[in-house]
Specification:
- The chain has 129 residues and is an all-alpha fold.
- The protein has a single domain, classed as Four Helix Bundle (Hemerythrin (Met), subunit A) (Up-down Bundle), CATH 1.20.120.
- 67% of the residues lie in helices and 0% in strands.
- Helix 2 runs antiparallel to helix 3 (48-62) and helix 3 (48-62) runs antiparallel to helix 4 (69-83).
- The radius of gyration is 14 Å and the shape is globular.
Length: 129
């Protein structure tokens, strides 16, 4: 499994912000580092679905950045899946509403895990059929 490091996420966030003329800064670097370390623990997160769910959910919930946390979570999940050979078409569109649901506490982490699992299974089904 290939993992993102903290500089990947911060750089990605800064690129997103720069595109929209916002200031770029991280609010809680230690919290972001914690998220990234946790997904490397195979005892707690044994598969790509669990790791992807944790990454996406907690970037949104912990507000590691002063702004654009949902977009950073979407892009981080995309990058994490891409570097692990999950190139899922239309992933951004699929995740926009889901990111809002997470931020508004409209879905739980377990529900998010089911959604991410279904997206990944659909991807595998489509490339193998």
């Amino acid at each position: 499994m290939i993992y993102l490091d903290i500089n990947d996420i911060i750089d990605l966030h800064n690129e997103i912000i720069k595109e929209f003329w916002w200031l770029s800064w991280i609010k809680d670097k230690q919290q972001l580092e914690s998220i990234l370390q946790h997904i490397k623990n195979d005892e707690y997160y044994s598969n790509i679905v669990q790791k992807a769910t944790h990454l996406f959910f907690w970037i949104i919930k912990f507000h590691c950045f002063n702004d654009w946390n949902k977009r950073t979570a979407i892009w981080s999940l995309w990058m994490f899946l891409e570097i692990n050979n999950f190139k899922i078409p239309s992933l951004f569109v699929k995740l926009e509403d889901i990111a809002i649901w997470v931020a508004k506490n409209e879905i739980t982490k377990d529900e998010l895990k089911k959604i991410i699992k279904s997206i990944i299974i659909s991807f595998w089904y489509n490339i193998n059929s």
